[in-house]
Structures are given as C-alpha cells and as structure tokens.
C-alpha cells in the first residue's frame, strides 16, 4: 500500500479541484484551501512547486490564480507526487504496477474533467 505525504495529498486534492473547475478560469490558493480545509500557506507553497514543475500556470493580478497547463487526462498522479515529494524509489515488484496506476489516475482525472 502506498502512503502519501500530507503535502502530496493536498497537491492531488488541489489538482482535482483545478480539473473540475477548468472551465471557470484560474482558481486561487485561498479558494482551494477554504474548499478543502487545507492550510492556505502550505497549499500556496505546494501550488508554487507544481507551477515550477510545469503542471500549473500561475497568473498574477486581480483575477489571478492557478490553471492546469495540460488536459487533466494527460497528468498522472505520479507526476504530481513526484513534483511535490521528489522521486520516490519503488521496490522492483512495485514498478510493474506504475503504468496501471498512471492509467487509473488518468481515468480518474477524465471523470473529474466532465
């Protein structure tokens, strides 16, 4: 069983939120934090890291916030976790399931985008 860090969990929740609200434009860290009860300062740092990793685009100003840089179906949970926690080493037996996990994450993201 894979255990996520709190930061990775928050990041995945934020990415899900951004996928679900992609048609509404940018979402602020404050709005996402309030929606899920996440500490705003922690989420802001996580979102900045995801933007540095190229998964999010940051927009400054009055209508600023974050948007996904790609279709949510093209972003895997592994990419998000790696951007937040860095590379993780999986035991050899677990590596064969990595593609299945990415496919499942992509399916999940596609359902969120509908």
Please, could you describe this protein's structure?
- With 114 residues, this protein is mainly α.
- Helix content is 57%, strand content 7%.
- The chain has helices at residues 6-20, 29-36, 40-52, 77-85, 92-95, 98-113; strands at residues 56-59, 65-68.
- Helix 1 packs across helix 3 (40-52).
- The protein is globular and about 40 Å long.
- Residues 91-99 and 108-114 have low confidence and may be disordered.
Task: Compose a concise summary of this entry.
With 114 residues, the chain is mainly alpha-helical.
In whole angstroms, the N-to-C terminal distance is 29 Å
Q: What's the oligomerization state?
A: single chain
Shape: globular
Rg, please?
14 Å
> How confident overall, as mean pLDDT?
83
Q: Stretches where pLDDT falls below 50 for ≥5 residues?
A: 91-99, 108-114
Instruction: Note the main sheet.
Output: 2 strands, antiparallel
> H/E series, N to C?
HHHEEHHH
Percentage of residues in helical conformation: 55-70%
Which class do the helix and strand fractions yield? Answer: mainly alpha
Number of strand elements: 2
- Strands across the major sheet, in which order? 1-2
Number of DSSP helical runs: 6
Measured by DSSP, the beta-strand proportion falls in 5-15%
């Amino acid at each position: 069983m894979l255990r996520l860090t709190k930061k990775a969990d928050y990041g995945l929740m934020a990415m899900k939120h951004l996928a679900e609200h992609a048609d509404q434009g940018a979402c602020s860290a404050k709005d996402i934090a309030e929606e899920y009860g996440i500490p705003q300062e922690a989420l802001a740092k996580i979102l900045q890291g995801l933007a540095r990793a190229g998964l999010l685009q940051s927009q400054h100003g009055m209508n600023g916030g974050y948007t996904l840089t790609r279709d949510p179906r093209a972003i895997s949970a592994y990419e998000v976790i790696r951007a937040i926690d860095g590379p993780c080493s999986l035991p050899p037996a677990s590596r064969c399931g990595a593609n299945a996990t990415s496919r499942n994450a992509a399916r999940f993201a596609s359902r969120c985008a509908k």
